[in-house]
Each structure stands twice: as structure tokens, then as C-alpha cells.
Amino acid sequence: MSVADYKQDEGLPKADREKYKPWSYNLASTDVYIPRFTAGQPKWFAAVTYSGKNNKYARVLIMAEQPKAQRWEMVAAVDLDDTKQVPKIALDADGYATAIDATSPKAVAAPADVLRSAVIDNFSTGGDLTGKKVFATTKTSKRQIKVHDETIHKFGSRGTTEFSSAVTEFPDSYALKTADGRALVVLAHAHTQRDAVAHLGLQIVPDKEDRAWLGTTPSPSFTYTFTCSDVATVPTTPGKSQLIGYTCRRTAAEGLSTSA
Fold first, then answer.
1. Which terminus of the chain, N or C, has fewer Cβ atoms within 10 Å?
2. SS percent in the chain: helix, strand, coil, step 5
3. Gap between the Cα atoms of 140 and 133, Å rounded
4. From which domain of life does this come (predicted)?
């Protein structure tokens, strides 16, 4: 996602490029949650950072150790829609958090692959198949469904838009036990968006943000790939999960003119 940001910016006209500015997180407004791990287990930790007036904005970060590179990398950064939805993380007597296997149906009511499919369904059908069954109604889930509802009609009678599932390049998931017995789960998903004209003779002109991948040549259809990070609170017993944040980036795009 970060690489895509740089690529997209470099594809913009120079006048539209934003100047890079140094940035950092304020540790005074950051809560860090470190789980216990045994020898041989992948090591990671989570943080929730707050910013803005009265800490109005919250973001979940995941840092994971990369054994081959022997360094720590931020593998997820997800903006939350409402700081009030940030759950209290359970801590033991020594201040450590408890990691949960988000892929196991024995550990959580909706494992990571179920959450991933439901998120993609929010985009592809507006949640009609599994999205609304897996997730309770939240600001975040409504925002994803709104993307579907508005985007599929953006061309009117001149074209169509379809969302589909894509292969998730980074299937790892991260989960922490919350104080109320649920799990805070962070995972990634990927989906595609295919825009196509409805009639011969029509073409789609790439937007400025697409030029890094598509150039400026019009095409009767384009397919965009989005890589996203999602955060949900998930019960450990049967019940609906709550989607509380997601962040997406366009990470690939192709059309008839670029794939020929």
C-alpha cells in the first residue's frame, strides 16, 4: 500500500504532487500492546495511536518482526471510524496482551477468512450475501456498502462497474483478546473493480490518480486492484462481528491498452 502511494504520486503531473513531509507518531498519545510469545513463534505487537484535537482520530498499527531481514516493519495501519469503538485490551498482571489465533473457529466466532469474505461481499454485492450476516451495522460497514451502491451506478447507462474478490497477497491476521472477552482482529483483503463501457464507440479516460499504471490512453475497460487493511471486533462465541475501520489503496490497474 505504501509503495502504491509513491507510485501513484510519481505518475501525477508535477503540479499535482504533494511535497513529502517528515512525520512521526506521538508516543504520548499511543497505547502499545505486546503479546507474550514462545520461542519460534512469529513476533508482533499492536499499537493504537491518537491524533487531532482531544485525540479525535485513532489508528491501529501492527508491527511484525521480519526474520530474514532481521528488522521490524509496520505491516498494517488502519484508520478507525470512531474512537469510542476502540475496545479495551485485556492485559495480564505483568502488562502483556494475549494473542488470539484469528484463523481458528475454536478461538473466534468468525475466523479471518470469514471476515475477509464478508468484507469483500460488502463491496461486491452491498453485503447481501454474507456481509450483513457476519457484520452488525456500523459506520464502517455502511461506508463499504455505500462504495458499492454509489460506484456501480457512476456511469449511468453509459457503462458498468463490478467488484470481485482478488487474491490476498498478505493473508496474515493479528488478534488480541479484549477485556470483555472478544477479539480485536486486523487482517488484509484484496478486491478488484472493473469499469467497462456499455456501448461500442465509448471509452474511459484514465483519471490522474491512475496514470502511474494506465498512462493517458483511453480504453473501453479498466480493472483496478485494491489492497486493504480491515479492523473488526469479533466475539468468541456465536454472534455478529463489528467492522470498525478499513483503509484501501489502489495497488494495480490494467486496461485493454496496457495489457495488449
1. C
2. 25, 35, 35
3. 15
4. Bacteria
- Residue of 112, 106, 96, 78 lying closest to 38 (CA atoms): 96
Q: Let me know how long the chain is.
A: 260
Q: For residues 90 and 98, what is the distance between their CA atoms, to the nearest angstrom?
A: 7
At residue 43, what are phi and psi to the nearest 5 degrees? -105, 135
* Domain range annotation of the chain: 2-259
Q: How far apart are CA 86 and CA 108, in angstroms?
A: 18
pLDDT in tens, 26-51: 889 999 999 998 888 889 999 999 99
Extract the C-alpha cell encoding 141.
460497514
Contact 78, 70 (CB under 8 A): no
User: Cell digits for 1?
Assistant: 500500500
Backbone angles phi, psi at 209, to 5 degrees: -70, -15
